[in-house]
From TrEMBL:
UniProt name for this protein: Ras- protein Rab-28
Species of provenance: Sphaerodactylus townsendi
Name of the gene this protein is made from: RAB28
Length: 96
């Protein structure tokens, strides 16, 4: 497993880098050229999956995430209802 520096200067573990079909530099270039956000997640471990969804939701809602929210979102045991609550979303399926 190698390390890769994320967009917020955090070091992210990258598993199976040698099997990556689209290399990181091509991925970043595509995202920059097409004004897309860039996210690296692990399907194997689930690393950064919640953070990816949280950042996308924050971008859509024009909400600025603070460092504490980002660090908390990297906790894989965080229940989805609590995560939605952090963004002011109702994910329980019930109306309020």
């Amino acid at each position: 497993m190698s390390d890769q520096v994320g967009s917020d200067s955090t070091v992210l573990p990258v598993d199976l880098e040698h099997l990556r079909t689209v290399k990181a530099d091509r991925h970043h270039r595509f995202c920059q050229e097409n004004h897309c956000s860039s996210h690296f997640v692990s399907a194997k471990t689930g690393d950064s999956v919640f953070l990816c969804f949280q950042r996308i939701a924050a971008d859509i809602l024009d909400v600025k995430l603070n460092r504490a929210e980002i660090e908390q979102s990297q906790n894989p045991t965080l229940p989805s209802a609590m995560a939605g609550e952090m963004l002011g979303l109702n994910l329980s399926g019930t109306s309020e």
